[in-house]
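Deliverable D4.2, example record:
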Amino acid sequence: MENDLLPMEEAAHVLGISKPTLYRLVSQGAVHGLKAGKQWRFRREDLNAYLEQIPTPVPPAPPGIIATEIAFFAGELQHIRQEPPDDSGSSGDVNSLFDLLIRNALATGASDIHLEPAAGGLRLRYRVDGLLHIIRQMPAALRESLIATIKEHAQMNPTERRQPQDGRIRYDFGAKEFELRVSCIPTVDGETVVARITDRSQVLIGLDRLGLSPEDRARLDDWRQQPNGLVVVTGPAGSGRSTLIYSLLLAANGPGKKLLTVEDPVELRLDGVSQIPVGRRAGLSFAQGLRAALRQDPDILYVGEVPDADTARLIHEAASLGSLAMAALPAGRAADVPMWMIDRGVEPFLVSSYLAGVVTVRLLRRVCTECREPVPVSAGTPAFEHLCQLSADGGFVVSEGTVFYRGRGCSTCRGSGYKGRTGLFELMPFSPELGSAVLGGAAPDEIEAIAVAAGMKTLLADGMRKAAEGVTTLDEIMRVVTVA
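Output generated by the structure prediction step:
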């Protein structure tokens, strides 16, 4: 049998790969090997089995097509940045095209890059200020080569087309460092790739630049300085939730504090913060990670998700044991959080005793200041009067004669009428009166009414305040906030 076993070098030669690649395939379980002392040995039938099931190589893209796409993106980049052309695409290969595609997305201010099979080609879209925009329809002959290049940069297997893959790319652009979280999944029409762009300088911007009102900023400062309790941040994916949480952690961090986070995945590395990765890849659940974190004597503990009853109970336990706990939830509004916790098995007395406050956050587009113009509003129309009444019920009264604005559309905002985004907030301090309401089984609407009477402003009210200040438009508020 010993004579039938091949050493590492010979096995790599049979597979046509390098020894480091073979090591990686063995660690991933893709190639079966046998350990003989400190040496690896391989059976020829195991190598043949791998060769039979590996995907076919990626076909190269025609040079003429690559050159055309490079010329397009180089021209776009020159137009966006108003700079003379550089030599980014001088090598003329797919890597140069990949580089220009990423640079264009960053220069445009995109938060996500989407590459999708469509109409016999490859459709490229950027998400800018929350909305997707079609950028380019590229030829089908480029599809496999470009996607394989993205996979290589993201440390994925470029020839694996049958299974979903995730990876990361670090990218320097100008004086900034970006991280791209890449997801690739197979569809019936071919693979689709999405890259979520994280700009460290934009995530860690500090609480002053989020769009908080002075009173809401003061409340957040008060909550983060408490020695214990639970602060919950709610909002769907892409709502600005992570930016708010990381800004809170940044503001609370210091040499006298022990900060821990439990995340899946760790979205951004924070200096001075112990960040624990959990999830399938880490082989650790949120509850397991949270239990371990509680033994680390934390002053502040953040949990990126509350997926089950165990985690919900543990985060309240952390708040009761002398830590300031923070948690992210997908709940729709602040008033939904107490019932959300109770539905997951947390005792009402724990919620009423340790919940310090809830922040609900959304992102909305700013009206472009270059083409902003007053918009006539019919004060007597039922739709506008209804909006004003809901705003008043939510804590902000629209003054008579308030001027609202819209963006006409110009070259600065690429015709959209909007440029940049700001936060929309709903902060609910958890008062003794709210605690009594929770113990009494109050519904979310009743909890919201009590909170508004105590000074909370709803998402809609905060949106109407920003529209009245000329920050955004009425149309944008209607798009972002659910209006009953």
